[in-house]
Amino acid sequence: MFTGIIQTIGQIERVTPVGDDVKLNINCAGLDMQDVKTGDSIAVNGVCLTAVTFNDSHFEVHVSKESLSVTVGLDKPDAVNLEKALRLNDRLGGHLVSGHVDGVGEVVLFEQLGDCWKLDIRAPHAISKYISVKGSICVNGVSLTVNTIAADVFSINLIPHTIENTTLQFLKVGSQVNLEVDQIARYVERMTLWAAEPASS
Questions:
Q1: For residue range 19-29, what is the model confidence (pLDDT) as tens digits?
Q2: What pTM does this model have?
Protein backbone atom coordinates (compact mmCIF):
# COMPACT_ATOMS: atom_id res chain seq x y z
CA MET A 1 0.00 0.00 0.00
CA PHE A 2 1.02 3.60 -0.65
CA THR A 3 -0.25 7.11 0.13
CA GLY A 4 0.26 8.94 -3.16
CA ILE A 5 2.68 11.36 -1.49
CA ILE A 6 5.72 11.31 -3.78
CA GLN A 7 9.04 11.01 -1.95
CA THR A 8 11.34 11.87 -4.86
CA ILE A 9 11.61 12.05 -8.63
CA GLY A 10 13.76 9.22 -9.96
CA GLN A 11 15.07 8.43 -13.41
CA ILE A 12 14.75 5.23 -15.40
CA GLU A 13 18.30 4.98 -16.72
CA ARG A 14 18.27 1.61 -18.45
CA VAL A 15 15.57 -0.63 -19.90
CA THR A 16 16.67 -4.21 -20.55
CA PRO A 17 14.38 -6.62 -22.45
CA VAL A 18 13.82 -9.95 -20.69
CA GLY A 19 11.77 -11.99 -23.12
CA ASP A 20 8.41 -10.18 -23.33
CA ASP A 21 9.16 -8.39 -20.05
CA VAL A 22 11.68 -5.68 -19.15
CA LYS A 23 14.08 -4.98 -16.32
CA LEU A 24 14.41 -1.34 -15.25
CA ASN A 25 17.44 0.24 -13.60
CA ILE A 26 16.22 3.32 -11.73
CA ASN A 27 18.29 6.13 -10.25
CA CYS A 28 16.71 6.89 -6.87
CA ALA A 29 19.42 9.09 -5.37
CA GLY A 30 16.84 11.26 -3.60
CA LEU A 31 15.16 8.29 -1.88
CA ASP A 32 16.30 6.98 1.52
CA MET A 33 16.99 3.29 0.83
CA GLN A 34 18.34 2.40 4.29
CA ASP A 35 15.15 0.60 5.35
CA VAL A 36 14.54 -1.12 1.99
CA LYS A 37 14.98 -4.89 1.68
CA THR A 38 15.04 -7.15 -1.36
CA GLY A 39 11.44 -7.89 -2.27
CA ASP A 40 10.05 -4.62 -0.94
CA SER A 41 7.53 -2.68 -3.00
CA ILE A 42 8.23 0.72 -4.51
CA ALA A 43 5.65 2.65 -6.52
CA VAL A 44 7.05 3.85 -9.85
CA ASN A 45 4.70 6.35 -11.52
CA GLY A 46 1.91 4.79 -9.48
CA VAL A 47 2.75 1.18 -10.37
CA CYS A 48 3.63 -1.17 -7.50
CA LEU A 49 6.89 -2.90 -8.40
CA THR A 50 9.28 -5.17 -6.49
CA ALA A 51 12.87 -4.13 -5.82
CA VAL A 52 14.97 -7.14 -6.85
CA THR A 53 18.38 -5.49 -6.34
CA PHE A 54 19.32 -2.11 -4.90
CA ASN A 55 21.98 0.11 -3.40
CA ASP A 56 21.99 3.66 -2.01
CA SER A 57 21.38 5.29 -5.37
CA HIS A 58 19.79 2.72 -7.70
CA PHE A 59 17.36 -0.17 -7.69
CA GLU A 60 16.17 -2.66 -10.27
CA VAL A 61 12.67 -3.99 -10.92
CA HIS A 62 11.23 -6.60 -13.25
CA VAL A 63 8.13 -5.42 -15.16
CA SER A 64 5.92 -8.07 -16.73
CA LYS A 65 4.36 -7.91 -20.18
CA GLU A 66 0.95 -7.67 -18.50
CA SER A 67 1.99 -4.63 -16.46
CA LEU A 68 3.46 -2.97 -19.54
CA SER A 69 0.20 -3.51 -21.44
CA VAL A 70 -1.97 -1.66 -18.91
CA THR A 71 0.35 1.18 -17.85
CA VAL A 72 2.48 3.95 -19.37
CA GLY A 73 5.93 5.30 -18.60
CA LEU A 74 7.74 2.05 -17.83
CA ASP A 75 9.14 1.15 -21.24
CA LYS A 76 11.78 3.84 -21.83
CA PRO A 77 14.26 6.05 -19.96
CA ASP A 78 12.36 8.91 -18.32
CA ALA A 79 11.72 10.73 -15.04
CA VAL A 80 9.38 8.84 -12.69
CA ASN A 81 7.61 9.48 -9.38
CA LEU A 82 8.83 7.24 -6.56
CA GLU A 83 7.26 6.25 -3.25
CA LYS A 84 8.25 3.47 -0.86
CA ALA A 85 5.52 1.24 0.54
CA LEU A 86 3.47 2.53 3.46
CA ARG A 87 4.25 1.26 6.96
CA LEU A 88 1.40 0.75 9.43
CA ASN A 89 2.70 3.54 11.69
CA ASP A 90 3.19 6.07 8.88
CA ARG A 91 1.11 9.23 8.52
CA LEU A 92 -1.47 8.86 5.74
CA GLY A 93 -0.98 12.23 4.05
CA GLY A 94 -2.72 11.34 0.79
CA HIS A 95 -5.15 8.43 0.45
CA LEU A 96 -4.86 4.65 0.35
CA VAL A 97 -3.24 3.69 -2.96
CA SER A 98 -2.66 0.07 -4.00
CA GLY A 99 -0.30 0.68 -6.91
CA HIS A 100 -2.63 -1.29 -9.21
CA VAL A 101 -3.42 0.94 -12.19
CA ASP A 102 -7.08 0.97 -13.28
CA GLY A 103 -6.55 2.64 -16.64
CA VAL A 104 -4.54 5.07 -18.73
CA GLY A 105 -5.85 8.62 -19.09
CA GLU A 106 -4.98 11.41 -21.52
CA VAL A 107 -4.21 15.04 -20.66
CA VAL A 108 -6.61 17.33 -22.54
CA LEU A 109 -5.74 20.61 -20.77
CA PHE A 110 -2.74 21.77 -18.76
CA GLU A 111 -2.55 25.48 -18.07
CA GLN A 112 -1.25 27.84 -15.42
CA LEU A 113 -3.83 29.87 -13.49
CA GLY A 114 -2.04 32.30 -11.20
CA ASP A 115 0.31 30.35 -8.93
CA CYS A 116 -1.47 27.06 -9.61
CA TRP A 117 -2.11 24.83 -12.61
CA LYS A 118 -5.33 23.37 -13.99
CA LEU A 119 -5.05 19.78 -15.20
CA ASP A 120 -7.87 18.13 -17.15
CA ILE A 121 -7.64 14.42 -17.91
CA ARG A 122 -9.88 12.19 -20.01
CA ALA A 123 -10.31 8.88 -18.21
CA PRO A 124 -11.29 5.60 -19.84
CA HIS A 125 -15.08 5.41 -19.85
CA ALA A 126 -15.05 2.15 -17.86
CA ILE A 127 -13.54 3.83 -14.79
CA SER A 128 -15.20 7.26 -15.00
CA LYS A 129 -18.04 6.04 -12.80
CA TYR A 130 -15.59 5.71 -9.90
CA ILE A 131 -14.44 9.36 -10.11
CA SER A 132 -16.40 11.92 -8.09
CA VAL A 133 -16.13 15.59 -7.16
CA LYS A 134 -13.98 16.04 -4.02
CA GLY A 135 -12.99 12.39 -4.28
CA SER A 136 -9.43 11.09 -4.49
CA ILE A 137 -7.64 10.04 -7.66
CA CYS A 138 -4.09 8.86 -8.18
CA VAL A 139 -2.31 10.26 -11.27
CA ASN A 140 1.13 8.79 -12.02
CA GLY A 141 1.35 7.90 -8.35
CA VAL A 142 0.30 11.33 -7.06
CA SER A 143 -2.67 11.58 -4.68
CA LEU A 144 -4.96 14.37 -5.93
CA THR A 145 -8.47 15.71 -5.35
CA VAL A 146 -11.03 15.92 -8.16
CA ASN A 147 -12.51 19.40 -8.58
CA THR A 148 -15.03 18.72 -11.34
CA ILE A 149 -16.01 15.92 -13.69
CA ALA A 150 -18.05 16.10 -16.89
CA ALA A 151 -18.62 12.90 -18.87
CA ASP A 152 -15.17 11.24 -18.86
CA VAL A 153 -13.08 14.39 -18.26
CA PHE A 154 -12.11 15.35 -14.73
CA SER A 155 -10.29 18.46 -13.55
CA ILE A 156 -7.61 18.87 -10.88
CA ASN A 157 -5.92 21.91 -9.36
CA LEU A 158 -2.16 21.54 -8.82
CA ILE A 159 -0.40 23.70 -6.24
CA PRO A 160 3.22 24.85 -6.81
CA HIS A 161 4.60 22.25 -4.37
CA THR A 162 3.08 19.40 -6.40
CA ILE A 163 4.39 20.83 -9.67
CA GLU A 164 7.89 21.30 -8.26
CA ASN A 165 8.18 17.89 -6.59
CA THR A 166 6.58 15.48 -9.06
CA THR A 167 6.85 14.60 -12.72
CA LEU A 168 3.45 16.21 -13.33
CA GLN A 169 5.47 19.31 -14.19
CA PHE A 170 6.47 17.62 -17.45
CA LEU A 171 2.93 16.91 -18.67
CA LYS A 172 1.47 18.45 -21.82
CA VAL A 173 -1.69 18.05 -23.84
CA GLY A 174 -1.70 14.52 -25.24
CA SER A 175 0.43 13.04 -22.45
CA GLN A 176 -0.77 9.70 -21.12
CA VAL A 177 -0.95 9.04 -17.38
CA ASN A 178 -1.53 6.10 -15.06
CA LEU A 179 -4.82 6.36 -13.14
CA GLU A 180 -5.92 4.57 -10.00
CA VAL A 181 -9.38 5.33 -8.62
CA ASP A 182 -10.28 5.50 -4.95
CA GLN A 183 -10.62 1.96 -3.58
CA ILE A 184 -13.74 2.89 -1.61
CA ALA A 185 -15.65 3.49 -4.85
CA ARG A 186 -14.86 0.00 -6.10
CA TYR A 187 -15.97 -1.64 -2.86
CA VAL A 188 -19.20 0.35 -2.78
CA GLU A 189 -19.99 -0.81 -6.32
CA ARG A 190 -19.26 -4.43 -5.45
CA MET A 191 -21.46 -4.33 -2.34
CA THR A 192 -24.28 -2.73 -4.32
CA LEU A 193 -24.05 -5.33 -7.08
CA TRP A 194 -23.82 -8.16 -4.54
CA ALA A 195 -26.94 -6.96 -2.75
CA ALA A 196 -28.84 -7.16 -6.05
CA GLU A 197 -27.65 -10.68 -6.89
CA PRO A 198 -29.99 -13.58 -6.20
CA ALA A 199 -28.88 -15.74 -3.29
CA SER A 200 -27.52 -19.14 -4.22
CA SER A 201 -29.57 -22.10 -3.09
A1: 999 999 999 99
A2: 0.93
Say whether both 119 and 160 belong to one domain: yes
Domain with residue 186: its CATH number is 2.40.30.20
DSSP codes, the chain: -B-S---EEEEEEEEEEETTEEEEEEE-TTS--TT--TT-EEEETTEEEEEEEE-SSEEEEEE-HHHHHH-SSSSSS-EEEEEEPPPTTS---S--B-S---EEEEEEEEEEETTEEEEEEEPPHHHHTT--TT-EEEETTEEEEEEEEETTEEEEEE-HHHHHHSGGGG--TT-EEEEEE-HHHHHHHHHHHHHHSPPP-
Residue 200: inside a domain, yes or no?
Answer: no
